[in-house]
Amino acid sequence: MITEFITCGSLPELLVTRNRLANSCVLIAGGTELNRLGSPVAEKELAYVSLSGLGLDQIQFKDDGLYIGSMVTLQQLLDAEEDPLWLKEAVKGAGSRTLRNMATIGGNIGSFRDDSYLLPALIAAKARILTADVDEQGVLIEEDVPIREYTEHASAFNGSCITQIVIKRLDRIVLTKRYARTVQRRPDAIISFGAACDGSALADIRIAVGALGTGVARLKEVEEGILTGSLTTHEEILQVVKKTTSVTDDITGSAAYRQYLVSVTIADMLARCKQIAEGGTCT
Amino acid sequence: MKISCTVNGTPRVFHAEPHEDVQHLLKREGYISVRDSDDAEGFAGSDTILLDGIPVYAKLLSVGQIQGRTISTPESLLSGRKLSVIQQAMVDAGVVQSGYNAPAAALLLSELLERDPDPSEAAVKDALSGLFNRATGYQQFFQAVEIAKERMKDPDYATEIAPEFRDDLRVVGKVRPKIDGTKLVAGWKAFVEDMVEPGSCTLKMLRSPHAHAYITDIDTTAAQAIPGVLAVITHLNCPDRYYGKAGQGFPEPSPYDSRMFNQKVRHVGDRVAAVVAETPEIAEQALSAIKVTYEVLPAIFTVDEAMADDAPIVQNGVVEYMAGAPDDLEQYNASAEPKDGKVVIQFPIHADPHRNIAAGAHGSIGDVDQGFSEADTVIERTYETSQIQCTPLETHISYAKMDGDRVILHASTQVPWHLRRIVATALGISENKVRVIKERVGGGYGSKQDILLEDVTAYASFLTGRPVLYHYSRKEEFIGNSTRHPMKITVRLGSKKDGSITAVYMDVRANTGPYGNHCLTVPMNACSKSLPLILCPNMKFDVTTYYTNIPPTGAYQGYGAPKGSFALMTALGELASELGLDLLDVIEKNRVRDGSLLEILKCLGEGREGTPAYVKSCGLEPALTEGANMIDWGVKEQADDPDVMIGKGVAIIQQGSGLPGLDHSCADIKMLADGSFMLHSGGADLGTGLDTVSVKFAAEVLCVDMGQVSILSGDTDNTPFDTGAYASSGTFFSGSASMFAAEDLKKEILSSAAAILKEPVEDLALAVPGKVVSTSGAELTYWEIAQETQAGLGRGQLVGYASFTTEDSAFPYGAHFAQVSVNRLTGEIHVDKYYALQDCGTPINPELALGQIYGGSFKSIGHTLYEDMMLDDQGVCQVTGLRDYGVPMISELPTDFKAVLVPTDDPYGPFGGKSVSEISCNGAAPAIANAIHDAVGIWIRTWPMTPEKVLRALGNI
Predict the structure, then answer these.
(1) Are A99 and B944 within 8 A, CB to CB?
(2) Which of B60, B126, B866 is nearest residue A36 as measured by Cβ atoms?
(3) In a domain, A239, yes or no
(4) Are residues A152 and A74 in the same domain?
């Protein structure tokens, strides 16, 4: 239950407030996670500290990449001309425009949902997260964190204030597939595949999966197997997926079904990425 | 906290608690069009508002988020009482039916047209992607936007909205705005929730966490001690009466197998205790203060488990019969467990509760064994259908208050008179002490035929003397609402090599769950609405319904027919495949035709002796011909993706038009002092346009514009009796009553005119616009007649009355065609084309009929492919919201979706009309199953047909 709704005039003021209230507050972006039915904070008495009005809703191209403010809504991402197509495709996983008008990129990342619309794609893209804090003197401290580190150590970043998402490697190939019985139903699986082109070969592969019940995670063994050439078919990939993921049956389907989907999709994406690389259309 | 914002152009200051959400705030401040269908799931969109011009879900906003912002609600679209262009276009296109979230849809489309005056279909889909619309599907929204966008350029723009029928009639068969369309799309007071007075109490229900258990102790002391708690009702203090909750005609074929509260709980979510309190918060607090001790029993969830020799018995109480008790009843009851209560059976229904059998039916024509022995090929297949939620946008709601010693019940119901009878029975009072006022119904689809909460709401008000509101949460819908019965149906077909069917056998095993609502009639309907589609002299069926511990079942649009049609029509596809014949040829060789005698119906009387019936009108021939042309039947399509295979399927379907011999509708109509008319119909319009049908009939008969006829319906104090809106009875029964009431008044008008003009009545006729003309050339306007008859020495107000019953049937028919793409690698299924061609006789409201077909077809596409109430091994429903349950949204629309009206002229239907809505649910499952087989060569015999099932059938996993 919300005990107080606090708005702040600046980012440092927000961070000072957040630190002062500590565990009795939560940062609110769009509110679609905190205010929804079954929200993880529904049973707690918390002050809401709002990220609105702090200028975090801008998308900017800079010399070293694309900077997306954490309060940018999913619909803004879809509408923005600057965004790469793969990001727009991932955003479309949020099938409701009304929801996209409210949900923010920062909120989607910060809520660490297993079925996050964006995290798998951002991991595959090797995006980075900028977070902010203040020291005891109220001086702003910013940290630049690889998104893989952010997700792998989620508990360490829980409650952190995301200010921007940065995509520096805009030349990476990123493919995402979200399987769901209906567009808006809980997905059966989300698979994102990212790679860089090294000439006509693939390099620096990142594969992330979501909605398997274990949080968004990288499939490092599959990445390595593909890079070393030991995994080429979906049957081979399936063996590694089965060994390295602990999936349970749930309302979206059996573990066997979802592991099959993951492997067959990775095999398909690998083939498509190779085609792109060989065709020299990476950039 | 204080919130300053601008709402609909007016600066406002609100005082709110920080935890209040914006939908709640706006609603309490009088913006009643901002409704709630999903308890903040952020899915259904009934709570849509514009925040700084952008659509958002108000329920997902905390009040702090609107500080200093600008809000627009659907109320902002109106100019006085005048609808906006898009609102009017929605009404004209026929997309406003139950209308619960029509205001939200109008707001979304208004915002779309503001930012894109010439939107594509994709843009319309995108704009409505966050809005759930169960009643009509979404197809007609595209037309509404087209109309609006043209009218924004040219206010006089006109187009053909739907085909019109019957050149000999003025309003019947013509496109006319639904008479309550304006009220619904504007968001004015219409629904039960809009009638709740300040200071009303709240009722909340404590529900069972166990699927099967005895309540061994219940302590409500602490709950009752909480200030603001007015009553706590349990099995210990509720009325000791057993009554039916199925909302069927008396005597019901459904057993009375529960009281208001029972000592035994029979499903997760069963009633344990009701708290009546001053506020919802106090009621919630009191619920958590009730201490309950359970003796947990083993539970069963499937028909197979219920059939087992050592199965736990769900209804092990004393069995009583009101008529036709078996001779060995005393011996039968020797093993009864008193804590289980009673099962009161109105008349024999082949029930054997102590073996978990709630009801049964068996029958045959011809010689089935002989038929199978004559066959060249015999196939036997078993199909299973799943438990399906009705998911009305307006969750179940009831508001009761006392007027002296009378209970006044504002209800969202399909059966006002059954509701009055059942509430009176439950409370132990006579029916004159109960008044039911049916408000607009925000989606029923069958679930508002059952009495799910009105009994306890009425009793709470009766007990406390206070007005009491009980409004289901969405979660309660999933555990406390009636659903589609799961069924396991085995079909055996015998056939000659040329596809001529020699014998048909259907074995229907239905799962009624904890109570026997519709336990005989829904499963029988699986046979009675499918077997007559096939002309075969040898047919047999066995129907058995079992009690289990799943959430309750009951009526759902289509009743048993979607299940029976799925089994029989898919089996027909399997037979055609086995014989190497084209399915359409096999259908054509065996199908019902104009003039056919449906002999099997003599065995399918739904609790009474049935009657064979002749088919007096059947539009299957044109429907099949046109549908086959539309979908290029016989042409194999190729997809660009080599992993994707395309297939086509078809199914023929039928329903009834009410229950001849059982249903009964009445209406009266009065001439008012200025010659206009007031029609009182017992019919319960649940959004489908029944009131519009009734007004059209009266206007047609009386030669006036529809605007000269107003209607009041479904008010048990002020309108005459009607059995209710179920079994596709609206147009045929309630409509006929209105038509015949108008005919009766017509006689009165002519008789009065004859007296005034002093001319023979035979020389007089009614004429447009509202006058009597004589062959002599004399004329009298209705105004003149009214003035004369209602004058001091007049003969009195002219009133017409009719009571309509019949033994005659008017069967609607249809042919549904589907084309699907199936990905062999991923199992994904996409419906590329869906064509629903339906014969509803004369389409009385063509545009609304199309909406019904789109809505019913799309619902059943959802049942076939997506929707899934999953129970765990303890009987706990794993989905509690619309999103994970998998209701289809606009994103799931078939790429090419068409509803086509195939007119016939039925001699029994009013103005040739037949029913249209329910039948629409019967075609998708078999048409899609046949199409999937055509695509990838596999048969999916269970709902939902998921990608995982496809992959398993293909051997990929």
Answers:
(1) no
(2) B60
(3) yes
(4) yes
